[in-house]
Design goal:
This is Quercetin dioxygenase-like cupin family protein. InterPro entries: QdtA_cupin_dom (IPR008894), RmlC-like_jellyroll (IPR014710), RmlC_Cupin_sf (IPR011051). This protein is mainly β. The chain is built from no helices and twelve strands. The chain has one domain: Jelly Rolls, CATH 2.60.120. The strands form three sheets. The protein has a five-stranded antiparallel β-sheet with strand order 1-9-6-11-4, with no helix packed on it. It has a five-stranded antiparallel β-sheet with strand order 8-7-10-5-12, with no helix packed on it. A two-stranded antiparallel sheet has the order 2-3. It is globular, with a radius of gyration of 14 Å. The relative contact order is 0.32.
Amino acid sequence: MTHFTVLNLPTFSEPRGSLTVLESALPFAVVRTYWIYGADGQTRGGHRHRYTRQALVALNGKVTIHMNDGITNEDVVLNQPSQCLLVEPKDWHTMKFEEGSVLLVMSSHPYDRSEYIDTPYE
């Protein structure tokens, strides 16, 4: 069990493959979508936001997200494309990528460098 919100997205599996549905699952409208790949063994992130909310899905491989909301420090492992971690603005986060991992990120706001907070909680 995690302190942070991990959604188990509806997934339909059959012999021909699996289909995971994101429709209506997120508590915010997505205005920016991007994915991170080729980051084998790297740690990325290292910030929180003033107002942007995010949803993270490891489409392939394993990504360990270190989360800190100022009270709780916890590692959340994403290794199934049916898992979606919600990252709230207060959540300081870093993302450690295993080989071959692809991380899909959906954001509530467009990119704005001025709303990033780079100083971690003490």
